[in-house]
Structures are given as C-alpha cells and as structure tokens.
Design goal:
Length: 714
Amino acid sequence: MGLDRKTCYIFGDLRLDADERVLRRGSEIVPLPAKVLDVLCLLVANSGTVVSKNEILEAVWPESFVEESNLTQSIYALRRALGQGTDGRSFIETVPKRGYRFAAEVTLAGESKGSPAAETPTANGSGLVPRKRFRKTAMLAIAAVITFGLATFLTAKYLSPMPSAPVETVKFQRLTFAGDISFPVLSPDGKSFAYVKEGAIHLQDVASGSSVKLEIPDIKKFGNLQFSPEGDLIFFRNEDSFDAGGDLFQVSRFGGQAKRIADRIWSTVGFSPDGRSFSFVRFYPEVGEWALLIRSLEGGSEQKILGRNQPFSIYRSGYPAWSPDGDRIAVVEQSPDQINSSAIVIVDVQTHSAEKLETKRFVQIEQLAWTPDSSQLIISGRENNRFFQLWSMILKSGEIRPITNDLSIYRNISISADGKRLLARQFSTYSHIWVSDAADVKSLRQVTFGNLNRDGSAGLTWTPDGKVVYSSRIMGDIDIWSVIPGNGVRKQLTANSGTNNENPFATADGRYIYFESTRSGTRCIWRSDADGSNPLQITFADGGTDFLPVVSPDGSLLFYIQRNPKSNILWRQSLIDGTREALTQPGKFYPAGFLAISSDGRYLAFENIRPDNRQPGKEIVILDVTGQTAPRSMAIDSANEISFTDLGKSIDYFEHSKAGAKFWRLPLYTTGEKKLLFELPKERIFDFAWSADGGTLAISRGRQDTDAILLTGF
C-alpha cells in the first residue's frame, strides 16, 4: 500500500504526520520544501525497500521536465534536516546504481489527529509497500498525496497569512531546446507561438514542433512580440531605438513587409478584446513621467489614462494587460517607498480611475495576464529571496497561489484565449566554480558540481588560506559556501531559510566574511567569522538597500553601495566606530555595481550610469579614496564584473555576447590597448576573483538556457 494519510510514521526522534504533511522533532517543526517533503513521504512509505531514481522522479515530479539533480539536491536536504539516527547512521542510504532506501526503523503510530498509537509492527523489512506492487499501487497513492499537499509548505512559508488553495497538478511541456530564444508569445488559439532567435522571428507549431523563420526585410532587431486578438498579425518593437523607446511594427504571421504603427513604445502592447485599440507605456524624459496610453490601431490621437512621475514608474518590461471584458487594464507600478517593491494597478478604461492592489510579498512583478473570465491575473513575480515564478491572483479575494516553485526563472508570459494554455520563457542557469593558474583557459579545472546550483553566480571571493568563498543555491535559498580547490571539500557558511546571502568578500587577514543578506527584512551588509559563525549586522539600509561590500586591506573601512528611491550612493564606513561618509553625490555619479578595491586600498572602481547613457556596464569610474587625484571615468565595452590588478594599474573585466564570454585586461594609466586574456565560446562568466597573491583565478562559469515552456492544468 502507499502512504496512508491518516497515519503517522515515527523514526528516531522524528514524527512524520502524513495528514498534516508536517515533520516534527519533538514539539518543533522541521521545515522542508514541498518537493523534499514529498521525497521523504515516498521513501518512508517504502522503508526498507530500494526505490529507484526513476520511480521517485515519476512520483514526485509527474509530467514535469526536471533533471536528476533535483532529486540529488532533495536527498542532500533531507539528510541535512534529518541528521543521524541513534545508531549514528544516515536515515537514507544510497544504493549504487539502484536508488535510495530509507534504512531506519519506522513505526506506524496510528491516527494522526491525536488518536492513540496503534499496535502495529514496524515497517522496516516488513514490506510496507511490497516491491512487486510499488509501481501500480504506491506510485499512484503517493502521487495522490503529493497532489493533495503540493503547496502546503509554500503556503506556510511564503503566503501566510493569506489563505491559499492547493496548487493543482501542473503539466510542463518544453517547446524549444535551442537555449537562446527570447520574447516568446502564444497565439490566441494556443496552437502556435512566436519567438525571436538569432535576430529573426520564428513561428512554431505547438503540436508538431515544426517551425519557420519569417522573412521580414529592413528590420534588424525584434523585441516585445505580441499577437493580434485574431492571431493573424504579429506586432513587435524595433529594438534599434531601445533607449528612446522603440518603433512599433505589425507584420503578417507569414512574414513579408512590416508596417510601422507608432513610435516611442517602451513596452509590449496590450490589445482591446475587439482588436481595434492597443495600450502601451511611454516615458517622457523631459518631465520625468511614465504614462499608460491608449490608441486606435487605425491611428489618431493618443489618450493618456494613467501617469506616474519619477521616482514612481510603470514597469516597462511587461505589457499593459487589457482585461477580456474590455473594462480594465492592469499594469505594474514600481514604488519608491520600498526598493524593488511592486504593486498592481487596475485602471478603468472609461473613467480612468485607478485601483492599486498591494502585493508586498513581491519585490518585483514583471508581467501580467488575465484569465478569460477576467476574474484572475497570472503573475510573473519575484519574492525577496527567490527567482521569478508564476502565480495566480483571484481579484475578488486577493488570494495568491503559486503555479511554479523551482530554481528556474519564468518570464514573458502569455495565455491562450480559452485560458487552458500558458506560455512562459524559462531561464535555467548552470554555473560552477573553476580555477586556473594565472589567466590560462587551458588550466581551468572544475571544483564544484551539480546542476542548477548557480555556484558563484551571486559572487565569489578568495580567503588568504586558499579557499574560494562563493554563493550557491544548492539548498534552494542563496547561501554562502566555501570550497578547497585542491580536494573539492565544501562547507556551508550561512543557513537562513527564506533569506538570500550573497556577494561575499573575505578580509585580507582572513578573519571575516562580509556579505549581503536579507535576513533582517531588507538587504543589508552582514559579517561573520571565516567559518560562518557569529553573524553580525553591520549596515541598516536607511530605507534603501545596501549591497556589494568591500573592505580595505587593513580591515578598518567598509565600502558599499546603497540604493535608495532617488539615487545610488557609495559609502565609506568605519569598522572601528561606525561613522560613515558618502563618497559620491546624487546627480554627479550613480554607482550601480561592480565595486572593486585595489590591493593597496587607495582606489575604488565601480560601474556608473550616466543620465545620458542609460545602458549599464558602459562606464567605469576610478575613485581615489584619499582624495589626492580626481575621479577618472572611462568608457568600456559592456562589462559584467571588474577587478583591479597590479595595485590598481589595470582592471580585468568580462563581457558577454551571443558568441560567448570574453575576459579582458585594460591598462588604466598607459596608452596600451586592452588585452584579451581568454574567451569561452557559448558560455557565460558570472563572476571572478583573483587569489591574494594574484596567481590563481577563480571564475563562476556556465550557461543560461532560455526556452519556451507550455503549462497546462494551472
């Protein structure tokens, strides 16, 4: 038989209540993610029996596209949460080439809701679920339990106190396998979808997978695709003029000459149900206003129905979603009162009255889509410590339910006219730590392993004793880990469920690790001992967010960037008495990222965004913290991270293109040209750091695949 939802299972000092889907140690609840709990239920129900990896994957992730690494990470999380039994052995045994076995003695404790313990034999070795019956009986039973309680953990951790119904079984179908598509959009009938790949629009049939490249002359860059309500036309924005808002074009779904419709379009367009009008977002830099406008497809005047003056904004990445009943338009508002805080604004098309739906659980909402009955919104949103996932919001009650919950990112959502199919762009990031002698690509060797861990993608650093300290999502949240490159031994330094801990910086004396953390409710700078012990909050954000800590070589000064509603400021803070001083002033510099310090502590380098150059990564400012020399600005290629070399005489940085990643060295005070140190075709570099002696390079290396995923049953 399968797991009886009316039965509790006792093993060691732990009690698994299958009805409530709760694991307890004594009176304390042991928090487990939903899928990890599902794996535990399955193994406990089959205690003493080897359960193959395929059987677990089929039971826990039915109809879903997942990799074996999901299971490996779940087993790791279980072993860490359960600890060891009274005999010192792990509760879960790995059986090479076969699967996993729950090895502890399990006792059935009768009814879960306070009933007396039943006098039943132990499950260990008794064939709780006979092997010959596992596939037919246990798999179905466990799948039913999993379906019933899929969102229990999510509800408790992320949605409380708002009630939330369980997530129905969602089926995933991967539609593309290229790994480099963008702007996917589903046709209204749900039978085809369009996307951009290699600078062209492609149209693909959902059922057969066959695709065609649309021949559209005179257009080089395509973005923000959208079908007309009838599905016969594809609208797109010409990305050549992105900074000023792109021109809007329409073209037949079969290709041909594109027709220019409007200019200065900052968003994807949303169509009225009759297809006669469209809504869009435009920015007016001369007055600092973001506006939601409506215009007839046949031309004529534009009608502004909503305006937001900076620092408020109407989020431009997602299109204004026009309700199927034609009465309302939903847009996303970015608020300055809390950094990265998003709210949904519903605008009445006729009266222009606006209703704001507070959704403080999301630090950012990117896109919205209506269900056909106009009663719900599908949301691509990001909680404080998580990636963009998909959610549904019932407008009448305000209830929000998760649709996805994994380590991928979901954006570019669109829904079929009947509401049965949902298309999203799935981002899957794979990164690991590699080290090399000097900047020799041939000597690069991998030191961390696993899929979807995103090792180092949120920062890495060297300790003086030769460890690489880096960020990782191996346990779901972003935490700080260390690894010894020589033997691959890893250690987790932070463990705060539900928080992000990232961008570590090791001090020159090896005593401390400084890092960003959201454990206080907002992003601030924290410090721990080198082994992760004794965490201490160092900064307090002051209504903004603090990020990218670096420390002077003598350990006396902390430098970091603070993002606030009106500007970004680079701060210097004494680690002796806590006093601080702003090193940049709003209006002159806008520090955005890539903060680095020279090995002598004299120079800081940071990415600066100029008012006349909105594209990040195009300008680096070199700041003399002693004030003896004036700041120096220099234009570079689109950098993604920087580091000083040779006591500040040069900087290293990397850049990305469709061809891959390139790693450059640029002299700062000579006339020499930049030098290409190495390149990684078809890969990305997420971060890098030099060892204290400058002889060893560590990089976070991998790829980010973007493909179209079709969801049903949501």
